Amino acid sequence: MALKDSKTGKVIRDYSIEQLKDAANMMRGYDLVELCAAGSGHSGGTLSIMDIVAALYLHVAQHDPKNPNWPDRDRIIWSAGHKAPALYVGLGYSGFCDINDVMTLRKLHSNFQGHPHWLKLPGVEVSSGSLGQGLSISVGMALAARLDGKKHKIFCLMGDGEQQEGQVWEAAMEAGHYKLDNIIAVIDVNRLQIDGWVKDVMQVEPLDAKYASFGWEVLHVDGNDMKQLVEAFDKAKTVVGKPVVILADTIKGKGVSFMENVAGWHGKPPNREELTASLKELGLTERIPVEQLLNYAKNYQAAQDRELEAKMPKFSRDFWWNAGDDMKVKMEPTRKGFGKSLADNGGDERIVCLGLDISGSITISDFYAGKPERKNRWISMGIAEQSATSAAAGFAREGKLPVLGSYATFMSARNLDQIRVSICYGNFNVLIAGAHGGVSVGPDGATHQALEDLFAMQGLPNMSVVVPCDIEETRKATDYLLLKHVGPKYIRFAREATPIVTNLETPFVFGKANVIRLRKEAANFAEAFETQLASGYKNESEDLSIIACGPMVPEAMRAARILKQDFGYETRVLNLHTLKPIDAEAVIRAAADTGVVITAEEHQIGALAWRVSGLLTECKQLYGKPLITGAIGVKDRFGDSGSPWEMVKELEVSAEHIAQKAVELMKLKKK
Ligand SMILES: Cc1ncc(C[n+]2csc(CCOP(=O)(O)OP(=O)(O)O)c2C)c(N)n1
User: Fold this and answer.
1) In the predicted model, is pLDDT for residue 285 greater than 60?
2) For burial by CB atoms within 10 Å, which of 48, 231, 393, 667 has the most?
3) Is the CB of 162 under 6 A from ligand 1?
4) Residue 670 has what pLDDT?
5) How far is the CA of 293 from the centre of ligand 1 (A)?
């Protein structure tokens, strides 16, 4: 078998084992260059799986790069979507795309998104990135092939940590039940995941006995040995009457000594020096035109920069963060406020923290950092958001204070029914952290950017929802929610460093908005503003109000500055950190006092805008009064890969976009 011309049936190119080995080595080199050019992405797992990719794309799979939608092609499903860089070099090497273009990995508008998107790139069968879904997709494809009398195979690539997702086992059961011998699953058993060794995070072994008991044929192979791999694939194709799983024993980071078997290299790219060292170890220094490839990536980025800047609303000067000599702002990731609170309050024996294999990055592991006595209240649950959510309800029923968190999208969408029934219906005291919310996971791309979570969370009876605006407010909000507030609660915070605009003294009262007013120009941005509880604020008949939450609060403040400097407008910024219960009085007063209201959310438009407009349209006090409204937020679209701040511009959720909207509305007010 080999790459085939789908029209003539002729082999395009067949590779010997030695040639496949060499190709896998070269592909490792290109993989590391694209990761270095991207500045983010997954080195460890792409290196462990690369021999499998070379075997599959160059030798085992029957496919035709000139005819990517050939109905008889074998399908390759990347359930482990984070290994996209390996997929992309696989496509480049087999001729589906130009290897130079792969270097645009994770950059704005690139076809090589942080996680694979089939609508962007021929050769990619389906979009993935949320772990545990690929085998179910494969089941659907396999059953469809059976209905259509087709003979092709469906290969599904998964990780061993990924086996912790319950959905994998639903699909395994289905494939066994329907005796889907057109499915060949491959598990990259490198024994590591993000939080450490799979056996410590959540044991998945014995995988062979588990799959066998679900009616699968199980093959074992050294997944970094090309000959064994090719033989295993050949054998798998001959199995009749049941699905096949190949358990491929691999080394995470394979080929680069300082990456091998090191958990820290899971989601890290090599820097320039590390790239040089890696290529030297792989014996590729002379064989890969590194500078040319990196320049290709740089030029692509420069073109994107120009295009993006051209699209930005323009004002008298550059008001972007820290662009001038004054109004300087410090930035820190809000997630660190969450970790600080857990570290400060974790001594409370009722608190238990549930780990979901993303613990360091979302800072939930700060709960036990340097405090071994808390380790018994740290419960690693593996990559199993749904079960962990219901387990949290069990803890709460027994009087504990459970805290769990992951990427906001996996913590609010994947487990939505569990939150609804296990937690909210029973009104349990569970703190759910929607970490890495909004656009701030930029380069990971659309699958990882939670832009819808607040719809669902606010819609649930009994649920409280807080979206703090900076690191300090995140700490205060976590302190409050953790120990003072009883009931289901969701806190959403970001990954990227965002402006610090509050301090120890700034009021934070759950359910009560703050009014923020620009008072002067100052050396320090935050000091130019005065903040007080909305309930104590006296109307200054400002020209307009901007109602914001989360990282849009600093953007709203910056918009207030632009509006004052360029147009002389006075703006009331309302920091609505608590979305639910909403401070109705503050919202209605802002509308009544100023007559112009703009909402600003780092989310699909509506989580904030529709709640605010719902309040305003049913407020009798406002009947018959002119009110002009506008909404800033994401306009019913998925995100894209790109840096977090690029995404702020691309998705039109910057201060400049707020200010532009304000100017447009103020013209209407004047009429
Ligand atoms: C549903 C879901 N939860 C969490 C993540 C974040 N995540 C990405 S990779 C990963 C670890 C995967 O481990 P494993 O399957 O062993 O892959 P490998 O170590 O081979 O990279 C996690 C938790 C995700 N992408 N999807």
Assistant:
1) yes
2) 48
3) yes
4) 85
5) 28
